[in-house]
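QA checklist item 7 of 12: single-chain prediction sanity check.
[x] sequence parsed
[x] length recorded as 317
[x] structure emitted
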Amino acid sequence: MSTSELKTITVIGSGLIGRSWAMVFISGGYQVKIYDNQPGQAAKAITEIRKQTEELEEAHMLRGDLSAAQQLALLSCYEDLAPALEGAFFVQECVFEQLEVKQSVFQEVERFVGKAVILSSSTSCLVPSSVFAKVQERSRCLVSHPVNPPYYVKLVELVPHPETVAAVMDAAHSLMTKVGQAPVLLRKEIDGFAVNRVQAAIIAESWRLVQDGVISVKDIDLVMSEGLGMRYAFIGPMETMHLNAPEGLEDYMRRYGEGIARLLRSFGPVPDFFGEPAKRVVKEMCELIPSDQQHLSARKERRDLLLMHLAKLKKDH
């Protein structure tokens, strides 16, 4: 059956990512059962989702065609796993990033669902072959790795287990597209997937430039936010190169390929993120934005608001 005929999704874990996934799925008209084995947590999650959804509607930023009330009516909470899984065609696990816990969750889930139910993990750094190692029917397993916060940043990486069948990947891609996410398909699993590998490369060179005294924390962030990030918000690095030479990508590499290779050879080893030099980088960052909850929460709220407006701009264009 197509995803349009299947309407119930179970979200396991009611933390930030679990709540965000629930909001994404209800925005697409799916019934969502939130399960958390900690008493009261799933109910608290629904209270938080209600607050956010109503605020989004008031700001005219609510996703989907349904009103806030209609979306919220699709939510239910559970502390027992069996009823939480009843009727679900898709299970999105969002528990904390510990392999043994995730493996245990999926072992338990498999006891209560049929073989056709798709099992998906939100892990950001554990490969599917590890997460689903104790699952019997691994052909229906995949990682659906969102970018935080998923409600505002729509990209989701779909990463197959080595045994995952194509139909499962197609179904997950269809679901994510229907709820307004921007799914990308990885053809095979790799440590860090795509997002975190690209992010790690940027982090490493940014950290190295600050640590080596080449540039300040403030200015390296401006390199991205007021430079590269301006165009990367709409086009990626491959299209950027393709558009930045008169005759496209091949011409770009003729012009700049040797220079890029030279720069790459000049990169140093992986920076030390924990030693004495690293403390200077952390100190500089905390002078700009103190690491207490008040300052961090304010900056996170600003980030989410700007992402919300950026998402609207992209949608309207």
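[x] summary fact logged: Residues 118 and 140 are 5 Å apart (CA to CA).
[ ] second reviewer sign-off
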